[in-house]
Amino acid sequence: MIDEALQDQAALHALGFLSEPEAKAFARQMEANPELTQLVGSLRATTAALAWAAPQVSPTERLKTDLLARMAEPLRPRFGGFGAVPAWVPWAAAALFLVASSLLLAERGRLRREVSGLHGDVGGLQQQVDGLRGELAQRQAAYARTQGELVTERDRLRGEVARLQASDALAKVQLRALQATAGQQKLKAVAVVAWDPASQRGVFEVQKLPSPAPGKDYQLWAIAPGQPAPVSAGVFRVDASGRAQVRFHPTVQGLQQANFAVSLEPAGGSPKPAGPILLLSQ
Amino acid sequence: MPAAASSPDFSEVPPPLGSGGAGVSPSPPPALQERDRALLDAAAHGDHRAFADLYDRLAAPVFSLILRMVGNERAAAEDIFQESLLRLWRRAPAYDHRQSSVFTWAVTIARGKVIDYLRARGRRQQTFVETTPEDLAPRADPAPGADAIVQGREEAAAARRALGILPPEQRQVIELAFFGGLSHHEIAARLGQPLGTVKARIRRGLLQLRDELAPSLPPPSFAAPGKGRVPLSP
Predict the structure, then answer these.
(1) Which residues pair with A191 in a beta bridge?
(2) What single-letter DSSP state applies at residue B173?
(3) d(Cα B162, Cα A188) in Å, to the nearest integer?
(4) Helix ranges (DSSP H) in B70-194
(5) Is the CB of residue A206 less than 8 Å from the CB of residue A262?
(6) pLDDT in tens, B171-180
(7) Residue of B nearest to A37 (CA)
(8) pLDDT computed for residue B17 by the predictor
């Protein structure tokens, strides 16, 4: 009994539709199954008989003549032998092969030499690369050293610039010595003002100035061109030895080439000089 | 190719008689099968005359099949036909009668050649021409030789009648497979039908054809294929 799946395979095999592996596997089944073999044989015969179902057309007599003529020809090698070509062609082909082989051998030798030469060139280039790498390392080290030196020099120059700037600033500071005015000859006090017009700041120091009477304070004044009246620089007190040192910053700006004066004012100071002027710079 | 041998004596072979006209099943032609085999055997020994006789017996159905498969392109059909017959001649020494009749073998070779040709041109889908009712009607086709005329008419009539009996869906897939050279996969794709359906229709169709054509087919005496036997593929 052959099942339908096997019958399907048999029908496809009879029509030549099984792939090569399928056909081989099916042939093994046929070997073991005579009934299957008989089925395939009958189906092959059936399919072949269908050739009669095509409209019957006879080939021309010329075809038969040509076929019989070709049958008389010697069998040609399947992949193009020398049966249909002149006898000298194989010899010519062999000679051509020899010539081509010789040329190829010569070319092979030339290419080998060329490759060998290129290998030498590569070695030389590698040495150059190594040399350049060493030089690059040296230059990088020199650069690092130079960079360090430059940093040091930069810092040194910065210090120098700072020093010069400081000296320049100092040069701009105005020093004013204050002396007792004509009516105050009995005072032994000495005073000095260091005035920086750029920053409008100053330092006032006085010595040997007796303490003021009760209800009175000493007041420092700046007298500058362009100012209609002296500008107050602040009230100060002296210690027991008659010394005082104060930093002042007048509220009015733009005081250039100023002179300074000290007056005795009511305690707390006055907006304008009201008491006697004790000390005055020249 | 073996040395030429003398032609066989066919005097002992009964002539293939049969009065079958249109619509009449031909009688079993074992004698004709034997004659084909003897002719091919002689051809295998280099007998050109024997092969010429065999040519007369096979030419019409084989050429007609090729012509149908290539879509009636006569030049292509003639080339394939000549190559097929030449192959039959050259492979004659390898023929094994236990596997198939000479006619089946010749058709298998020719059909394989056509399929190779169509595949090489990707034309299988285009060249197939479906059978019309007129194609299946009994007709008197020209065929050379008295034997061939009589036998050919009977076999052609039987084949067309059997094909005409098939349900249309079975006849369609059988024709696409046999004349169109389309595989079952290609048929399924072309018809938009499941592969299993196509395979089942091919099986049923071939089995019914076999039963219809049984009287005209060679007896089932084929041996199982084994080593040293000729494969049926061309």
Answers:
(1) A178, A206
(2) H
(3) 158
(4) 74-90, 102-121, 124-127, 133-136, 146-165, 168-178, 184-191
(5) yes
(6) 999 999 998 8
(7) B224
(8) 29
Q: Which residue of A4, A42, A56 is the best one to mutate when testing the B interface, meaning the one whose CB has the most B CBs within 10 A?
A: A56
Cβ proximity of B28 and B216 under 8 Å: yes
Two structure tokens written together for A60: 């021309």
Torsion sign (Cα): A185, A189, A193, A194: positive
Token pair, residue B15, equals: 């002539």
| Cα B135–chain centre separation | 17
Reported as a pLDDT band with limits 50, 70 and 90, residue B144 is very low
Cβ within 8 Å of residue B205, ≥6 positions away: B166, B170, B171, B173, B174
Q: What is the ipTM of this complex?
A: 0.73
Q: Which two tokens stand for residue B28?
A: 């079993």
pTM score above 0.80: no
Residue in A with minimal Cα distance to B208? A46
For residue range A140-185, list pLDDT tens digits in order: 999 999 889 889 888 888 888 888 877 777 778 889 999 999 888 8
